[in-house]
From TrEMBL:
<keyword id="KW-0812">Transmembrane</keyword>
<feature type="domain" description="PLD phosphodiesterase">
    <location>
        <begin position="237"/>
        <end position="264"/>
    </location>
</feature>
<keyword id="KW-0677">Repeat</keyword>
<dbReference type="InterPro" id="IPR022924">
    <property type="entry name" value="Cardiolipin_synthase"/>
</dbReference>
<dbReference type="GO" id="GO:0005886">
    <property type="term" value="C:plasma membrane"/>
</dbReference>
<feature type="domain" description="PLD phosphodiesterase">
    <location>
        <begin position="413"/>
        <end position="440"/>
    </location>
</feature>
<dbReference type="GO" id="GO:0008808">
    <property type="term" value="F:cardiolipin synthase activity"/>
</dbReference>
<feature type="transmembrane region" description="Helical">
    <location>
        <begin position="6"/>
        <end position="26"/>
    </location>
</feature>
<keyword id="KW-0472">Membrane</keyword>
<dbReference type="GO" id="GO:0032049">
    <property type="term" value="P:cardiolipin biosynthetic process"/>
</dbReference>
<feature type="transmembrane region" description="Helical">
    <location>
        <begin position="33"/>
        <end position="50"/>
    </location>
</feature>
<keyword id="KW-0808">Transferase</keyword>
<feature type="transmembrane region" description="Helical">
    <location>
        <begin position="62"/>
        <end position="85"/>
    </location>
</feature>
<dbReference type="InterPro" id="IPR001736">
    <property type="entry name" value="PLipase_D/transphosphatidylase"/>
</dbReference>
<keyword id="KW-1133">Transmembrane helix</keyword>
<dbReference type="InterPro" id="IPR025202">
    <property type="entry name" value="PLD-like_dom"/>
</dbReference>
<dbReference type="Pfam" id="PF13091">
    <property type="entry name" value="PLDc_2"/>
</dbReference>
């Protein structure tokens, strides 16, 4: 807290010093003193940066930004998430998360892994060692393909709720789809069902200002995650909650890539067809997914619910395989990049990736290139047209080294590809909210399901193969003939990879 206040204080001081130097008629000695004080702040910041022992290239980059871009460089440094050192900004949340997950772990039944093959067992053992959550058996997962199937199932399950409904979304719009869900929630609260809704303050900005008063008046509890009015002061503006979670009566859970808005039904002319994946959970893993929501809820409003047995009760359902709910973010020691890397290094036959944004770190790049050179089939599916200039061209900037390694790259043509799916050897899979990019790895709060030997993996494989038919494969010869202007855009966009 002291450091956050100090950095915020420095921002104000630097703005005042620049104003005194540039826009006042103060004597030269006072302007010189102002410049000296500004320099002292920059030098102390650079010194602190060096002592963190980050990768040399990152340290040099941020040193250049701090020195060469007056005030703006410092503000960018503070609010882009660079002050997140060893989770200090979210230390209290991390400690609370650990306490709850450890209490859940004590109730965990012994797992039967006798049916797993070597690489499945290796990956399961890795997740057990490094994550706070546990693997779950007695859990059924059902894959929902695209928006229509997903929201029909969500509405059906919501209408059947008897006790409580908990929802957590990055984007929740008040358009036709959003209003349909709101109407269901309003009807259920009149029936006596408890409803709690948590939305990201940036992703759902228009929703928060438009309809929340009506919902709160009806008895629905609505809270924003990291409200903008305090985010500048506490330096958490750039950290967003990208999770999409629904828990119904503790028996059913939803998680995946779909937010709430008509574009996710393919009804937005700008995006066209929306290709995405969601999953329905039933059984023991619902409790773990619910714990992720309950901890986020406690963080935003202070209400502690996990001491109430009805919110943490298990409803086992017999099914095969392992299901592991893994939440990552700036409050966790590990990140989704580590888990993807572990999956890739377990591969013996194939690695299939579908993601809207492919902006990998060096470890991910190396793992994929090495896998391809070992003869493992590596397929990457990305949208033909992205929803942003930087993400579009930053993703393309990584294609040359991937193509040289023999990695197959597919450009989705039918509409916008938004699913976040990784499949290894056809018997390990990840599906959830995390993209293969730096924001999902370091800045966003994310949640994924890691599936080991479940029947639902076959559905993910089937849908991936169906989506491949809507793709155009990018060949090395074709890609290398792109215009110099395109290459320039790619190089420029790649400079911002660390915050995309």
């Amino acid at each position: 807290m002291k450091r956050k206040r100090l950095e915020f204080f420095f921002v104000i001081v630097m703005l005042i010093l620049c104003y005194l130097v540039l826009f006042t008629g103060l004597p030269f000695k006072w302007k010189g003193l102002s410049i000296g004080l500004y320099g002292l702040i920059i030098i102390s910041t650079v010194q602190a940066l060096w002592l963190e022992n980050r990768p040399p290239q990152n340290t040099l980059l941020w040193t250049y930004i701090l020195v060469l871009f007056p005030v703006g460089g410092y503000i960018f440094y503070v609010y882009s998430g660079q002050l997140l050192v060893k989770g200090e900004l979210f230390k209290s949340k991390r400690m609370s998360d650990r306490e709850l997950f450890e209490s859940i772990s004590k109730k965990q039944r012994a797992l039967d892994v006798s049916q797993l093959n070597d690489h499945q067992r290796s990956f399961a053992d890795y997740l057990n060692r490094v994550t706070l959550t546990d693997q779950n058996q007695n859990t059924m997962t059902t894959v929902l393909n695209n928006g229509t199937e997903t929201f029909e199932e969500i509405k059906r399950r919501l209408m059947a709720a008897k006790d409580f409904i908990h929802l957590e979304y990055y984007i929740f719009r008040s358009d036709r789809l959003g209003q349909e869900l709101i109407d269901i929630l309003m009807a259920k609260v009149r029936e006596g069902v408890e409803i709690r809704l948590m939305v990201d303050a940036v992703g759902s900005y228009s929703f928060l200002s438009a309809v929340t008063k009506k919902m709160v008046a009806a008895g629905i509890q609505v809270y924003p995650f990291l409200p903008l009015k305090t985010a500048w002061y506490n330096q958490k503006f750039n950290f967003r909650n990208h999770r999409k979670i629904i828990i119904i009566d503790g028996k059913v859970g939803f998680v995946g890539g779909l937010n709430v808005g008509i574009e996710y039904l393919g009804e937005d002319d700008e995006f066209g067809f929306w290709c995405d994946t969601h999953v329905v959970l039933e059984g023991e893993a619902v409790q773990t997914l619910h714990a992720v929501f309950l901890l986020d809820w406690k963080y935003v409003c202070g209400e502690t619910l996990f001491d109430d047995e009805r919110y943490m009760k298990e409803y086992p359902i017999h099914d095969n395989g392992l299901v592991h709910v893994v939440a990552t973010g700036p409050e966790t020691r590990d990140n989704m990049s580590d888990h993807y890397y572990a999956m890739f290094t377990c591969a013996t036959k194939s690695i299939w990736i579908a993601t809207p944004y492919f902006i990998p770190n060096q470890a991910i790049q190396t793992a994929l290139r090495v896998a391809a050179r070992k003869g493992i089939q590596v397929r990457l599916m990305v949208p033909d047209t992205n929803d942003g200039f930087l993400t579009q061209y930053a993703t393309q900037s990584y294609f040359p080294e991937l193509l040289r390694a023999g990695i197959e790259i597919y450009s989705y043509q039918k509409g916008f590809l938004h699913k976040k799916v990784v499949i290894v050897d056809g018997d390990l899979a990840s599906v959830g909210t995390a993209n293969v990019d730096m924001r999902s790895f370091h800045l966003n709060f994310e949640v994924n399901l890691f599936l080991t030997a479940t029947d639902s993996i076959a559905d993910l494989v089937k849908h991936f193969e169906e989506d491949l038919r809507e793709c155009r494969r990018i060949t090395p010869v074709e890609f290398y003939k792109r215009k110099m202007t395109v290459k320039g855009k790619e190089s420029f966009a790649r400079l911002f990879s660390g915050i995309l």
